[in-house]
Amino acid sequence: MEKVYLDNAATTKIRENVILKMQDALANFYGNPSSSHSFGRSAKTAIESARKTIAKTMNAHPSEIIFTSGGTEADNMILRSAVRDLGVQTIITSKIEHHAVLHTVESLRDEFGVNLQFVDLDIYGNPILSHLEQLLAQDTSKKLVSLMHINNEIGNILDIKAVCQICQEHEALFHSDTVQSIGHYPWNVQETKVDFMVAAAHKFHGPKGVGFAYIRKNSGLKPVILGGSQERGFRAGTEAFHNIVGLEEAFISAYENMDDEINTVSELKSYFVDVIRNRIPDASFNGHSGNLDKSTYTLVNVCLPIDAQKALMLLFHLDIKGIACSKGSACQSGSDSGSHVLNEILSKDDLAKPSLRFSFSKYNTKEELDYVVDVLEEFME
């Protein structure tokens, strides 16, 4: 049986050099980074080196990088602290954000009475920026905008520089869930003046359970997790040293090889889109995911011309054939309510059909993509 992994938006295969780096860390750097002896100092030095590596690549200051357990914790930390410590009274977001953002802002509305507003979307799932401006202009309270850079289900790319400009003009803070873009796109936080961003190492061939928050200097945010003075007092608890050095190694590899890997993966996506259009002409691509100019090069979301009853067996059939993909975000795999993203942009008729997200990496091949389409055609027939 073929084994084809096309669920890289959920998590990625760890690079071999990252595994070796982490093995060395686990075997030889076992001191507590907060200890003052040589064992602890060696671990602390490596953590600070990782912080500086990330900051330099993003043109940030090392103090602006806070290591976390991943994107969800970072999103929660930023949004909750913004309300509690910065006096944010209004949060403007969209209904197709990751649940790490949506569930957090809904909780803040219920707990603190935050005025939660949603920017309108166009038919492809893009936030309508003129409506964002309107919402900001009519509200005089302390405001925060939270819009993701790349949608994790349909791959749409936000015009993040335009949103930065709009937020600055209206004196609003801007938080962006950048989990699907850090490690895949270059970043310069002096040019793209986002106040808060987040990353997860396992989205760019690093380990699970580690990521970071970018928090612009002098933001005023205070710690959510209290205890020791780790992470400059912002996040208490002994650091997951082996994960942090693994994140650094994956981050270095991602940016050193970025141009080549963008070309490789873009070619795979373009090929897959063409094959689907030629061999399954009644299929359609959700959002802008079939357009390489308007969506990320790492994924497509395909609506297939299969009736609802037969569609119940599709993912099971693909799994039996050794194909890994998803019907939405991995974080909602236990839910029967379907994709909240597709519910916002698809017609009732298209919602009755199965939609699948296929997400690619440098480890995939065109032969694998041909096999996937063979299996889809076989199932449909």
TrEMBL record:
Cofactor(s) for this UniProt protein: pyridoxal 5'-phosphate
Keyword flag Metal-binding: yes
Keyword Isomerase: no
Class of this enzyme: transferase
Entry keyword set: Iron, Iron-sulfur, Metal-binding, Pyridoxal phosphate, Transferase
UniProt GO MF annotations: cysteine desulfurase activity; iron-sulfur cluster binding; metal ion binding
Aminotransferase class V domain location: 4-372
EC numbers on record: 2.8.1.7
One Pfam match: Aminotran_5
Alphabetical list of PROSITE patterns matching this protein: AA_TRANSFER_CLASS_5 (PS00595)
Domain of life from the UniProt record: Bacteria
InterPro entries: Aminotrans_V_dom, Aminotrans_V_PyrdxlP_BS, Cysteine_dSase, PyrdxlP-dep_Trfase, PyrdxlP-dep_Trfase_major, PyrdxlP-dep_Trfase_small
Substrates-to-products reaction catalysed: (sulfur carrier)-H + L-cysteine = (sulfur carrier)-SH + L-alanine
SUPFAM superfamilies: PLP-dependent transferases
Family statement drawn from the similarity comment of this UniProt entry: Belongs to the class-V pyridoxal-phosphate-dependent aminotransferase family. NifS/IscS subfamily.
The protein, known as: cysteine desulfurase
Organism from which the protein derives: Pricia antarctica
